[in-house]
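Weekly sync, protein design subgroup
Attendees: M.S., D.O., the rotation student, P.L. (late)

Item 1: inverse folding check
M.S. brought a backbone from last month's batch and wanted to see whether the design step gives back something sensible before we order anything. D.O. pointed out we never logged the input encoding, so this time it goes straight into the notes. Structure tokens as presented (280 positions):
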């Protein structure tokens, strides 16, 4: 609904809360074109159903919270969802504008990294979807501008990393094994989506299949819905069953198990919107 939900309980409410990274979702880049209305040009944040300019006053409290949790060692990553068709079809001047808006926003608001959430980008359905080469171009530009310590992650659905996870196709439109081969040194980890029919965390099977397919366990984060009431994803796994899966993966991979992320913070159970930090 656009109301601010504080992040500060993640660092103030319990020493049992262990959070390593927080993703701000989602960022989008809008080109300078008159048909964008009502979307503003430049870098925006998707808030409560609309695109808000990243410098809008109603985001001030979020930026304050962000700085506070970063000071406690939690790294904050901006998640870019959408805008990829514009980057793919951009000529030199429009690429410079769109990439520049992204770069400048990440720099001004002191993000620790970026998550490339490339969805609905299948060349068989959309000839203007982002290609592997353009994805690499984007990664290279980010690495050049932000240096070796800046985190670059991607958020593929689980079936992109292993066909054993689901019969559903990879919706990114390119081969992640080839991406890992060509730019794996620049990719910190994969926030793999184990939900919406692209994989699940009911058992270790999907995660194990991804590792058998050549991806290092320490680079694969198992993403699960954090609420059974989510309107943006399905595939909630009851706590008892999820715990069994995580414990099994911890036994199998030990300290190399990449970890778990929850989508998304504001309504995470068991606390819901009044205490979403309880999930962590």
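Designed sequence read out in the meeting:
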């Amino acid at each position: 609904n656009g109301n601010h939900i504080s992040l500060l309980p993640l660092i103030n409410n319990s020493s049992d809360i262990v959070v390593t990274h927080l993703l701000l979702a989602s960022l989008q880049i809008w080109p300078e074109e008159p048909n964008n209305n009502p979307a503003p040009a430049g870098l925006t944040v998707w808030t409560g159903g609309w695109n808000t300019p990243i410098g809008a006053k109603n985001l001030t409290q979020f930026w304050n919270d962000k700085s506070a949790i970063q000071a406690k060692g939690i790294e904050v990553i901006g998640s870019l969802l959408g805008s990829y068709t514009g980057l793919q079809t951009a000529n030199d001047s429009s690429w410079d504008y769109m990439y520049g808006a992204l770069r400048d926003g990440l720099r001004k608001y002191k993000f620790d990294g970026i998550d490339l959430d490339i969805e609905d980008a299948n060349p068989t359905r959309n000839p203007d979807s982002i290609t592997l080469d353009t994805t690499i171009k984007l990664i290279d530009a980010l690495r050049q501008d932000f240096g070796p310590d800046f985190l670059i992650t991607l958020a593929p659905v689980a079936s992109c990393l292993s066909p054993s996870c689901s019969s559903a196709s990879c919706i990114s439109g390119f081969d992640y094994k080839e991406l890992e081969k060509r730019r794996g040194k620049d990719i910190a980890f994969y926030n793999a989506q184990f939900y919406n029919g692209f994989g699940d965390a009911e058992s270790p099977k999907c995660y194990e299949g991804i590792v058998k397919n050549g991806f290092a366990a320490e680079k694969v984060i198992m993403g699960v819905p954090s609420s059974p009431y989510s309107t943006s994803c399905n595939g909630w796994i009851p706590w008892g069953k999820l715990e069994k899966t995580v414990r099994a993966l911890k036994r199998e991979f030990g300290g190399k198990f990449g970890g778990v992320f929850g989508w998304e913070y504001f309504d995470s159970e068991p606390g819901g919107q009044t205490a979403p930090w309880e999930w962590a």
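Discussion: The longest strand covers residues 21-30. The chain has a mean pLDDT of 92.
Action: P.L. to compare against the previous round before Friday.
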